[in-house]
Structures are given as C-alpha cells and as structure tokens.
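Predict the 3D structure for this chain.
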Amino acid sequence: MSSTASDKICHIFLVGFMGAGKTTVGQVLAAELGWEFLDLDRFIEQRLGRTIPEIFAEEGEGAFRDAESAALQSLPGDRPRVIATGGGIVGRADNRRLMEELGRVAFLDVPWEELLPRLKAEGGRPLATGEGGWDLVRQRLEARLPLYREAQLHVDCAGRTPEDIAREIILNLHACGEHR
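Done. Predicted structure below.
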C-alpha cells in the first residue's frame, strides 16, 4: 500500500531562542489540539541518560548538536506531535529542511528585553556561562534570527500569554487548511 501526502504525519515544531517559551507554549498548544507534546531536549536526555548541561560540559556543544540532529531524525512518526526544539537546532540546514519535511515550523519571536530576565531567572543555561556571558548570548540570538525567520509561521510573542500564542498558531494552521 502506498502512502499519499494526506497520509503523512504532520508535526508542529516550535523554534526560537532559549527562554522563548517553546516548552510552555508547546504544552498549551498540544492540549488545545489534543496532540502529544514532545520536548526534544528531554527526548535527547532520555536517549543519552545525561542532562543537556552535562553533555555540554563533558563533550561540548558540537556533540550536543550531533545528538540533537540524531534525535530529530529518529522522531516517532506514529501520530502528530507538538515538538519544542532546542534554540540552536536551526543552526544546521539539514535540521531546518527535515523539520519542514516533517511538518510546520513556528518561530516564537520574543524580544531580547523579555528574554534576558527570563534567562537570568531560569539559570542553568550552558551558553550563558564563561567569559562574555550575556553579551555572547545576545550575539548568538542575533546570529540565529535570520535562521529562525525561515520558519513557515512567525509569531510575535512580545507581552503575550502562552494561550494567546497557541491560539495564533492554531488560527494560522486553520488558514493553511492544515489543522485536523
């Protein structure tokens, strides 16, 4: 039996910088759609038996990015999911292409002025440690912005609740005829 495009499982990938609310929005969005939620970072941690900060500390960012790409390639395809990705997943063109092939990509765009207090409050961000700290983090955000903006959906999250953001994503999916 051959499959058609309409048989294809279509995930929703949430991309954006660390602290953008991908996990929180993803959980709300999945609940609204009645879909399963998957946090790609937690998926990686379960697969490798270590935390993200441990992977960064022991093997470096490159090893984590390799694990991230492998996890993306091995996502279960049995049903649609809302997937919160890590902030750097867009750094590899193959990851961006694969997410587009597997579903819709939504960029959660949060301005730096809102991100910084969130990041400082959360702590435990591997990229914010070491020399240069928050200045380097901001430079990384600015470098990734063009890649985030390649996403099919661009959601301005400034001052908005996770529920508002989830509703906007659903409305955009309806407009594209893609919500089932």
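The chain has one domain: 9-173.
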